[in-house]
Inverse folding.
C-alpha cells in the first residue's frame, strides 16, 4: 500500500508545484497579495507530501517489499538496514525523489527566511522554483517513478550495487543534491530580478547567502565523492575527470565565480548582468550535470540504465529552462544599469579576471566532457579525454588565477595604484619566488621538479598574502578588538581568508600527491615482505570471512617504517552474494603527511596474491583544504549583515523596494 | 580613460583570452587524448605502432594465461572476427573476466601485440564499454 500512497503524494506535490509556479506570478502582475502569499503554503505543502513520499519509499525498503520494482532492483533481504536507507537514493528513480525532496526543503527555507524581502520578490522567486519543481516531478512521474509495482514479485531483491555499500555513499549524494538544487535559489533570484526589472544591491545581498550555502554543500559533496572514490574504488585515485565528477565540478566552478561576482554586485553595484548570467549558468550546469548522468549519453563509473523516453524529456526540459532563461536575459539585460565607475586597476578588475578564469575553466571542463560525443558525431574517431589533457589545461590556467587570488584581498575597490600595491607585496612575492626556485631546482632532493616549485610557490604566495591581508585588516580595526570585529560585519572577510587558505591546502595536497606518490604491483606470499619508500609491508596471513551479504578474503599485513611496526592493514576482496561482483576493499593507514595504502588483487596460484602497495604523500590535505573552504563559506554566511533586516540594504536610489514589505 | 575605452579594453582582453584558450584546448586535444581501436582495425594495420591508444573488445574464453605466482599475463581481445594478444603486468580490475568486455590502454608493438599499461575498470556488472557494446551489436547484426 505504501507505494501507492507515495505515488499519490508525489502527484499531490506536482499539483501544488503547478499552483506555486503560476498563481504567485499572476499575483505579481495584478498586485493580488493573496495570490502571492499562496507560494508559502504550496512550498510547505510540497515539502510535507514529498517527505511522505520518501517515508513511503523508506517503508517499502525496510519491509523488503519487492513488489515495488525500485526496491527489487536496489535492495535485498540480507542488505544491512543502513544501506536499505541509502538504497533510497542508490538508483536513478530514488535519487530523483531525493532531489525533489531536497529541493522542497530549499523552497521552505526561502519561504521561511525571506521575511525581510518584499512579498512580490519572494512570490517571483518561489514561482520560479515551482517551475523547476514541476519539471522534476513530471520527469519522475512520467519516466522514472520509484513507486512502480512489478507484476511478478521476486523472492529476493537484486541488492544494492556493492560499490554503493559504503559509509561515504550515505551522505555523498544528499550533499551533492543539496548543492545542485541550492543553486536554484540564486537562479530563481536572478530570474525574479529579470521579471521585475529591478536589479539593485539588495538583490545581490539576498542572493549571496543562498549561493554560498549551496556552494558549501557542493564543495563538501564533491570532496566526499573524491574521498569515497579514493578508498572505495580501491585504486588510489582521488579525482578521475570522470564525466560525472566533471558534472559536479562545472556548477562548482560557475558557483565560485558567482560568489565572487555577487560580492561586486552587492558592494559596488557593478557586474549585474554578468552576475545574472552566472546565476543562470550555475544552475543550468547543475541541471545539465544531473541529467547528463541520467541520460546515459556519457559513460562513466556512475553508469545508469538509460531509456530513450528519459533522454527526450531531458532534452525538452533543458532547452525550455536554459533557452527560456537566456531569452529572458537577452530581453531584459539591456535595462540593467551599469553600476558605479571603477578604474582598470582595482578590486573590481581583479574579480572580473577571477571570473574570466573560472568561466574559462568551466568551458574547458564542459568541452573536455563533451568532446568524445563531438568527435564521434563528426566522425573524427573515438577518443577518450582523461588526465593528460585536463591536467595540462589546469596547470596552464590555474597558476595565474592563484597569483591573482593572493593579490585580490589586498587590492582596493574602485582604484588601486600599482606602485602602492607593489610596495606592499614585493617581499612576499620575492619570498614565494625564491621558495619556488628552491623547490624546483634539486636543492633539497634530486627528485624535485618544476611543478613542485610552482605548487609550493603558489601555496606560499596565497598563504603569505592572506596573512598580510589579515594583519592589515586587524590593524585598521585595532580599537574594535578581534572578537567584536569577528562577530560583526567582518566575518565574511575572515570567511574569505579561511576559504582561500583552504584552497592553498588543496593545492599543496594535489601538488605533492600527484608528483611524489608511489605505487607498486607485487606478487606476494604469506610470510614475505615488500618495501616501498621507507615502508615495509609484511604479508602475514589471509583468511575467509562471511559478511551479512558477502563472503570475503581478508589479508593481514603488518606495516613497518624503518623496521618499526606502525600499524596493521587488512585489505579485503569481497564477493557479494547476489550480484556476484568482486569488490576490492582497500585498507589505508592514514596520516597528516602521508597515507599508506594496500589493495588486494586476485590469487595468482602457488599461494601468491597480487597486491598493490601505495604511498600517497599529503593526500589528506586535499580533503582538509575542502573542509576549510566549506568552513570559510560558513563564516561568510553567518556575517551579521545577512542577519539584519533589509533596511540597510542599499545606498543606491533603488532602495525603495525594501519598503514594500 | 573613458568608460567606453575601458569596456573596449575588457572586451579585447576577454576575446584574446578566449582565443588563446580555444587554440590551446583544441591543439592539446589532438595530442593528449587516446583514440580507440578495435581488433579488426589493429589486424588491418589501421592503428599506429608505439603510440598511446586504447583497444577494446571481448576477452576471449580460455585466453587468460599466467604463470603461477607471476604478475605477467596475456589474454586475447576479440571483436568476433579478429583477435589481438594483449600483454599486461599487474592487477586487473575487479570486473575483468573471460567473456566480458574490456578496454586496455597502452601501445601496439612491432609484432602486433598490445602492451597494456592499464586495463580499464568499470563498476557495474552489466556494464559494457560503449565502444565494445556497439561492436558486439554490429557483429551480431552481421551474423544474422
Amino acid at each position: 500500500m505504501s507505494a501507492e500512497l507515495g505515488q499519490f503524494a508525489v502527484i499531490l506535490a506536482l499539483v501544488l508545484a503547478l499552483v506555486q509556479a503560476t498563481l504567485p506570478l499572476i499575483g505579481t502582475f495584478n498586485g493580488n497579495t493573496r495570490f502571492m502569499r499562496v507560494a508559502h503554503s504550496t512550498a510547505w505543502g510540497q515539502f510535507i507530501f514529498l517527505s511522505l513520499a520518501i517515508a513511503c519509499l523508506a517503508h517499502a525498503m525496510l519491509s523488503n517489499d519487492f513488489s515495488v520494482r525500485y526496491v527489487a532492483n536496489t535492495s535485498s533481504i540480507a542488505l544491512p538496514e543502513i544501506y536499505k536507507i541509502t538504497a533510497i537514493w542508490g538508483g536513478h528513480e530514488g535519487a530523483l525523489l531525493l532531489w525533489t525532496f531536497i529541493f522542497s526543503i530549499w523552497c521552505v527555507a526561502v519561504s521561511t527566511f525571506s521575511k525581510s524581502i518584499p512579498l512580490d520578490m519572494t512570490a517571483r522567486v518561489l514561482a520560479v522554483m515551482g517551475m523547476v519543481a514541476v519539471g522534476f516531478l513530471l520527469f519522475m512521474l512520467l519516466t522514472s517513478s520509484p513507486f512502480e509495482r512489478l507484476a511478478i514479485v521476486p523472492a529476493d531483491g537484486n541488492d544494492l550495487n556493492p560499490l554503493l555499500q559504503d559509509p561515504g555513499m550515505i551522505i555523498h549524494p544528499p550533499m551533492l543534491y543539496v548543492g545542485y538544487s541550492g543553486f536554484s535559489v540564486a537562479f530563481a533570484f536572478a530570474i525574479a530580478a529579470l521579471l521585475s526589472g529591478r536589479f539593485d544591491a539588495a538583490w545581490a545581498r539576498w542572493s549571496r547567502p543562498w549561493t554560498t550555502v549551496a556552494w558549501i554543500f557542493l564543495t563538501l559533496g564533491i570532496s566526499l565523492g573524491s574521498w569515497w572514490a579514493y578508498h572505495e574504488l580501491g585504486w588510489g585515485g582521488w579525482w578521475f575527470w570522470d564525466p560525472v565528477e566533471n558534472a559536479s565540478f562545472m556548477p562548482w566552478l560557475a558557483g565560485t565565480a558567482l560568489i565572487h561576482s555577487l560580492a561586486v554586485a552587492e558592494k559596488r553595484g557593478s557586474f549585474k548582468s554578468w552576475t545574472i548570467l552566472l546565476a543562470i549558468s550555475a544552475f543550468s550546469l547543475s541541471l545539465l550535470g544531473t541529467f547528463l548522468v541520467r541520460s546515459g549519453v556519457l559513460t562513466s563509473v556512475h553508469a545508469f540504465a538509460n531509456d530513450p523516453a528519459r533522454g527526450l524529456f531531458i532534452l525538452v526540459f533543458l532547452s525550455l529552462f536554459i533557452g527560456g532563461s537566456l531569452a529572458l536575459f537577452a530581453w531584459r539585460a539591456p535595462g540593467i544599469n551599469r553600476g558605479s565607475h571603477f578604474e582598470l586597476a582595482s578590486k573590481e578588475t581583479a574579480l572580473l579576471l577571477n571570473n574570466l578564469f573560472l568561466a574559462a575553466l568551466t568551458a574547458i571542463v564542459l568541452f573536455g566532457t563533451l568532446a568524445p560525443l563531438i568527435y564521434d558525431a563528426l566522425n573524427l574517431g573515438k577518443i577518450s579525454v582523461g588526465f593528460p589533457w585536463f591536467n595540462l589545461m589546469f596547470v596552464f590556467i590555474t597558476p595565474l588565477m592563484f597569483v591573482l587570488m593572493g593579490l585580490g584581498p589586498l587590492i582596493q575597490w574602485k582604484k588601486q595604484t600599482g606602485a602602492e600595491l607593489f610596495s606592499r607585496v614585493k617581499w612576499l612575492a620575492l619570498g614565494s619566488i625564491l621558495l619556488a626556485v628552491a623547490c624546483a631546482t634539486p636543492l633539497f632532493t634530486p627528485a624535485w621538479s618544476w611543478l613542485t616549485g610552482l605548487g609550493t610557490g603558489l601555496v606560499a604566495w596565497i598563504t603569505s598574502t592572506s596573512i598580510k591581508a589579515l594583519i592589515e585588516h586587524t590593524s585598521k580595526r585595532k580599537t574594535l578588538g578581534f572578537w567584536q570585529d569577528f562577530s560583526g560585519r567582518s566575518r565574511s572577510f575572515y570567511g574569505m581568508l579561511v576559504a582561500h587558505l583552504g584552497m592553498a591546502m588543496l593545492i599543496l595536497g594535489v601538488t605533492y600527491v600527484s608528483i611524489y606518490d608511489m605505487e607498486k604491483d607485487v606478487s606476494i606470499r604469506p610470510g614475505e615482505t615488500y618495501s616501498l619508500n621507507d615502508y615495509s609491508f609484511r604479508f602475514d596471513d589471509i583468511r575467509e570471512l562471511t559478511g551479512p551479504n558477502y563472503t570475503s578474503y581478508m589479508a593481514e599485513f603488518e606495516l613497518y617504517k624503518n623496521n618499526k611496526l606502525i600499524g596493521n592493514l587488512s585489505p579485503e576482496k569481497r564477493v557479494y552474494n547476489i550480484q556476484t561482483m568482486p569488490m576490492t576493499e582497500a585498507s589505508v593507514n592514514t596520516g597528516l603527511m602521508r597515507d599508506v595504502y594496500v589493495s588486494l588483487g586476485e590469487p595468482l596460484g602457488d599461494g601468491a596474491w597480487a597486491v598493490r602497495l601505495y604511498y600517497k604523500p599529503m593526500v589528506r590535505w586535499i580533503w582538509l583544504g575542502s573542509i576549510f573552504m566549506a568552513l570559510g563559506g560558513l563564516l561568510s554566511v553567518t556575517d551579521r549583515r545577512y542577519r539584519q533586516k533589509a533596511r540597510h540594504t542599499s545606498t543606491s536610489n533603488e532602495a525603495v523596494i525594501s519598503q514594500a514589505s | 580613460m573613458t568608460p567606453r575605452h575601458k569596456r573596449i579594453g575588457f572586451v579585447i582582453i576577454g576575446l584574446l583570452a578566449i582565443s588563446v584558450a580555444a587554440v590551446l584546448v583544441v591543439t592539446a586535444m589532438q595530442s593528449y587524448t587516446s583514440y580507440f581501436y578495435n581488433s579488426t582495425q589493429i589486424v588491418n594495420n589501421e592503428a599506429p605502432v608505439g603510440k598511446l591508444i586504447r583497444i577494446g573488445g571481448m576477452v576471449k574464453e580460455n585466453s587468460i594465461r599466467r604463470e603461477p605466482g607471476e604478475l605477467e599475463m596475456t589474454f586475447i581481445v576479440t571483436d568476433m572476427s579478429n583477435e589481438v594478444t594483449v600483454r599486461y603486468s599487474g592487477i586487473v580490475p575487479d570486473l575483468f573476466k573471460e567473456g566480458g568486455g574490456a578496454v586496455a590502454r597502452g601501445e601496439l608493438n612491432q609484432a602486433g601485440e598490445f602492451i597494456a599499461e592499464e586495463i580499464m575498470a568499470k563498476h557495474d556488472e552489466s556494464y559494457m564499454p560503449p565502444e565494445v557494446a556497439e561492436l558486439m551489436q554490429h557483429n551480431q547484426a552481421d551474423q544474422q
User: Anything to note?
Assistant: The interface with chain A takes residues 1, 3, 6, 9-10, 13-14, 17-18, 21, 24-25, 28-29, 32-36, 54, 66, 68-71, 89-95, 121-125, 127, 129-131 of chain B (CB under 8 Å). The longest strand of chain B covers residues 101-108. Chain B has two domains: 1-33, 34-143. Strands of chain B lie at 34-38, 53-59, 72-78, 83-89, 101-108, 114-119.
